[in-house]
Amino acid sequence: MFSVSARTQYAIRAMTCLATKPDRSSTSAEIAQAENIPAKYLEGILSRLKAFGLIESERGKNGGYRMAKNPSDITMLEIVEAIDGRIKPVTCVDAIGACAQGAACHPRNFWIGLKSTIDAYLAERTLKDVAQG
Amino acid sequence: MFSVSARTQYAIRAMTCLATKPDRSSTSAEIAQAENIPAKYLEGILSRLKAFGLIESERGKNGGYRMAKNPSDITMLEIVEAIDGRIKPVTCVDAIGACAQGAACHPRNFWIGLKSTIDAYLAERTLKDVAQG
DNA sequence: TTAATTCCTATCTGGATAGTAGGAATATAT
DNA sequence: ATATATTCCTACTATCCAGATAGGAATTAA
Ligand code: FES
Ligand code: FES
C-alpha cells in the first residue's frame, strides 16, 4: 500500500546523482554503478526522464546524460509523474462512479484529499532539497 | 504508484456501510450487495477487520457483523493498517541501508517525510468523517 | 574503422492481487 | 431433531505487472 516502485526510487537516485555533477555528463553505466541500479533497466528510466525534459543526452562516444534544468527548478512531483504518470490512489479520483455508488460515494472525497496531500508534499520539495539530504 | 488496493477500498466501503447501521448487525452478503463487493472476497476482509478489533460478529442464523467501536473512535489509518499492514513507501523507511547508500542516502529522509505526511492524513480522519462524506 | 554510447523492441519471470470453491463450525427457528 | 442461515477456515486458480534481461540498431568521437 502506497509503496513506491523501484523504478521511481531508481529515477530519484539517478537524478540526485546527476544533480551533483552539473558540469559534465555521466553515462548510464556510470550512474548505474554509483547508485547500484541494474544498468539495462536504468536506460529505460533515463529515456523517460529525457522524454519529460528533465534531462538531456548525447549519443555516441563521450555521450551521456546531464541535467536539463537547475535542480532547484525540478520538483519531486515532476520526477514521480514522469516515471509513473499521474498519481491516482483510486481510479475514481479521475473518473467518478467507479465504485457503483456514483456521485453519492462518500469515500471518494477522502481519496481525493489524500491525493492532494501527497501531491502537495511532492510539489513542495525540489531535487535540490533531496540531493542535499 | 501510491495506489490503494481493492481490498482496502472494499474494507472502507464495508466499514462505512456498517457505520451507518449501528443498531443492528449486517450479514456479509448484505454488505457485499449494498457496496458492490465480491461476496466471498468480502468475507476474508471482514475477518481481518474483526481480528483487528474494529468490528464484531456472530455466527449462525441471524448472525452478522456490527461495529465494535464508535465510528468517531476509528481512524482511517487503523482501517488501512488492519488490511495492508504498516505503510512503507520504501523498504528503507524501517530498515536503513536498503539502497546500498547506507546512512548516506539522501532520498531516505524524503521518503520518511512522505510516510509521515500520509500517516498524518489518515490518522486525522475518522470513519465517522468519511461515512458522512 | 573502431569503440563507446544512447536508443529501441522484444521477451522472460516471480510474486502479488483479485477472485473462486468447498465445506466445517455454529447458532437460530420451527 | 432438523433445516436453514450464517461466519469462518483452507486451499486453489487466474491474471496482471513490476522488475529485469537480451540483442542489436543508430549515432558520435577518436
Ligand atoms: S467512486 Fe470511488 S470509492 Fe466510490
Ligand atoms: S536507504 Fe532508502 S533510498 Fe537509500
What is the strand and helix layout of this fold?
The structure is a homodimer of 133-residue chains.
Chain A: H1 6-19, H2 28-35, H3 39-51, E1 55-58, E2 64-67, H4 76-84, H5 107-124, H6 127-132
Antiparallel strand pairs in A: 1-2
Bound molecules: FE2/S2 (inorganic) cluster (FES) (2 copies).
The site of one FE2/S2 (inorganic) cluster (FES) has 9 residues of chain B, from helix 5.
The structure holds a DNA duplex (30 and 30 nucleotides).
Kindly describe this structure.
Two copies of one chain form a homodimer. Chain A is 51% helix and 6% strand. Chain A has 133 residues and is mainly α. Chain A has a single domain, classed as Arc Repressor Mutant, subunit A (Orthogonal Bundle). In chain A, a hairpin with a 5-residue loop joins strand 1 and strand 2. Chain A is elongated, with a radius of gyration of 17 Å. The two termini of chain A are 25 Å apart. The model of chain A has no long low-confidence stretch (mean pLDDT 91). The A-B interface holds A 1-5, 8-9, 12-13, 16, 35-36, 76, 80, 83-85, 87-90, 99-101, 106-107, 109-111, 113-115, 117-118, 121-122, 125, 129-133 and B 1-5, 8-9, 12-13, 16, 35-36, 76, 80, 83-85, 87-90, 99-101, 106-107, 109-111, 113-114, 117-118, 121-122, 125, 129-133. The structure holds FE2/S2 (inorganic) cluster (FES) (2 copies). One FE2/S2 (inorganic) cluster (FES) binds next to helix 5 of chain B.
